[in-house]
Amino acid sequence: MHPGGVLTRSSLPLVGKAKATKVQEVKRHLDGRVETFDCEPVNVQEDRAVVRFRLPTRVGDWPRGTMTLGFFWENRSYTLYRFLSPDGDLLGHRLDVVAEVSVEPGRIEYLDLIVDVVVSATGDVHVEDEDEAKEAASKGLLEPAHLEAIESALGTILRDPRRIFRDADVLLPQE
C-alpha cells in the first residue's frame, strides 16, 4: 500500500467474473472516433470492472511501460485510471468524465466527455480540457445532459478524490 493509503499492487490475481482472458476497452469520442485497448481483466462484475493495461508508448506524463489499472462503474459519470511504475510505485491518477458506461464480459464501453482530472502521486489536482469541452458545447457536440454530467462529475471528483480511490481499492483482490 502506498503511504497515502492507495493500493499500488501491480501483479494482481483475477477475481470476480473475470473469466475472459482479455477485456476490450472501447472509448467513444464525441466526434465519432473510437479507440480500443486490449486489457487484462482483474475484476469484472455485472456493473463495474477493473482492468490492467501496460502503456506501449509514452502517454503524456506517463512513461512507456507504465502499468495502468482502469476502474469502471456503470452508475458513475467518471472512470479512474491508476498509473503505476514498472516497480509498482504510484505515479498518479486520472479521472475521465464519461457517459453511457457499459460493462460486459470481455468488453467495457463508454462515451468520453472530454474533461479529465489528474491527481499526482503527491495529491496535486489539475482539471484538463475544460476549454475543449466549452468549444465542443458551442459546436453542439455536447448535449445538455452531458454538460450536467460534467458538472456533477467534477463536483464529486474535486470534493474528495481520495474517497474515489478508496472505492476503487475495494474492487482490487485482497492479498
Description:
The structure is a single chain. The protein is of the alpha+beta class and 175 residues long. It has a single domain (15-170), classed as FomD barrel-like fold (Beta Barrel). It has three helices and nine strands, in the order E-E-E-E-E-E-E-E-E-H-H-H. The chain has helices at 130-138, 144-159, 161-170; strands at residues 15-16, 23-28, 34-44, 48-54, 67-73, 78-84, 90-104, 107-120, 125-128. It has a seven-stranded mixed β-barrel. The longest helix has 16 residues, at 144-159. The model is unreliable at 1-18 (pLDDT under 50).
What's the structural blueprint in terms of helices and strands?
Layout: E1 15-16, E2 23-28, E3 34-44, E4 48-54, E5 67-73, E6 78-84, E7 90-104, E8 107-120, E9 125-128, H1 130-138, H2 144-159, H3 161-170
Parallel strand pairs: 1-3, 2-8
Antiparallel strand pairs: 2-3, 3-4, 4-5, 5-6, 6-7, 7-8, 8-9
